[in-house]
Design goal:
The protein has six helices and no strands. The chain is an all-alpha fold. Residues about 125-160 and about 175-184 have low confidence and may be disordered.
């Protein structure tokens, strides 16, 4: 008996996508706006003075260094978001890793994935293709050259075929090994 996959998104999916969009806009646009209005540019005049290396460090210098560190953290998040958006739009699977940004890239991945799922035109369309392939009889499926296959074999039928097709589809989307390399 075939399993039906709902074609519509649930209200929870829509709410999660909208929440991720708000958080993403706040992090990518709100943080630099707040930093510019409250703390000033990333590199303040205190940090441009060469005497900072030999003189006593005051509170303004410490604040300037902390502001620079926050700007660098925001830049790292922004690069992670760009990499994740590029990977999500191009559907390359696991996007390139940004050096020294494990947790930051994981956060960006979750936010961007939720937003992309919200705005994709055919949400769940690939899952429906798996269901259609599982429902098809061996006579309906075509070989690589377009010729129909006849007879028994490993035709996907019923619920067992659906589970095998779905697990094969899921396995094709997961990286091989820990970081995408082939285990040796």
């Amino acid at each position: 008996m075939p399993v039906r996959i709902p074609a519509r998104r649930t209200p929870g999916d829509i709410l999660a996508g909208l929440g991720a969009l708000v958080v993403l806009v706040a992090l990518v646009g709100g943080v630099p706006f707040a930093l510019l209005t409250l703390a000033g540019p990333p590199i303040s005049p205190e940090l441009l003075d060469i005497d900072i290396l030999t003189s006593n460090v005051g509170t303004s210098t410490v604040v300037a260094i902390m502001v620079l560190l926050v700007w660098l953290a925001w830049l790292q998040l922004f690069v992670c978001v760009i990499v994740e958006v590029y990977g999500g739009i191009r559907r390359v699977g696991m996007p390139a890793r940004v050096p020294l940004s494990g947790a930051t890239q994981a956060l960006a991945n979750r936010l961007v994935s939720a937003v992309l799922l919200l705005f994709t035109a055919g949400g769940g369309r690939a899952d429906r293709r798996v269901v259609r392939a599982a429902r098809a009889s061996p006579d309906d499926r075509r070989g690589p050259c377009g010729a129909g296959r006849r007879g028994g074999g490993d035709g996907l039928q019923g619920e067992e075929g659906l589970h095998r097709a779905a697990s094969a589809w899921q396995a094709s989307r997961e990286p091989v090994g820990d970081r995408g390399e082939v285990p040796g």
